[in-house]
Design brief:
By secondary structure, the chain is mainly α. It has helices at 2-15, 41-44, 46-66, 78-114, 122-144, 188-212; strands at 22-27, 33-38, 157-158, 162-163, 172-174, 181-183. The chain has 6 helices and 6 strands. It has one domain (2-212). It has a two-stranded antiparallel ribbon. It has a two-stranded antiparallel sheet with strand order 3-4.
């Protein structure tokens, strides 16, 4: 992912001097530009910002998924295998969408130069990225498998479905019915995972919009 981000940044920096001072950012139904914004380095590098945000977010999630308290790690433990499968899927999805943003940067540069409301194969790229992400998710689900059921301990469950046991080092645990996996909210990392995703979902778009409107 790092190489893709560097390549995207280098491409946009090399293209920057040849871009028009006013970048077309809106087009009418006939494909004629009717909205412009001044060329600025932060605006032109927005695709790189998206790449960095995606890479940072997904890498942080993968790191949290693989974390174990007190250095405890048993590669044969079901929850460790589940965490490894989930972390691998997260990294692969990040690679897919970081690469897609690299293509988006190339397409945007062509649009700004030609003033044509066209991003060739952009929709196709989204579809390919979606299909690839779905395939990665299906593969991860197969690797996760069905968890081995655990003895039910009422004190470890909140609101009927939320597992909370600070003494359990596992991040992934079977659900009450043993059919799926759920998070152990007795570990702070579970809350950090949800918080990270929530903050990225709210803060990320806000920052990008602020950069685009500068």
């Amino acid at each position: 992912m790092g190489l893709v981000i560097i390549a995207t940044a280098m491409f946009l920096l090399l293209e920057y001097p040849s871009l028009p001072d006013l970048l077309p950012v809106h087009f009418n139904r006939n494909g004629t530009p009717n909205g412009w914004q001044y060329r600025t380095l932060p605006r032109v590098l927005i695709p790189v910002g998206v790449q960095v945000m995606l890479a940072g977010l997904f890498s942080s999630v993968a790191g949290l998924l693989l974390s174990r308290p007190h250095g405890e790690h048993d590669e044969d433990a079901p929850d460790v295998r589940a965490a490894a499968a989930a972390a691998e899927a997260v990294v692969l999805m990040a690679a897919v969408w970081v690469t897609f943003q690299g293509y988006a940067a190339f397409s945007l540069a062509r649009l700004w130069v030609t003033h044509r409301a066209s991003l060739p194969f952009y929709n196709l790229g989204e579809i390919v990225g979606g299909v690839a992400s779905l395939a990665i998710a299906v593969r991860a689900q197969r690797r996760l498998g069905r968890p081995a059921p655990r003895p039910f301990v009422a004190a470890h469950w909140r609101l009927g479905q939320l597992y909370k046991n600070a003494e359990d080092p596992a991040l992934f645990v079977p659900t009450r019915d043993g059919r799926r996996w759920t998070l152990n909210f007795g570990r702070p990392v579970a809350g950090a995972l949800l918080g990270l995703i929530l903050v990225a979902g709210v803060l990320g778009p806000t920052v990008l919009i602020a950069l685009a409107l500068r």
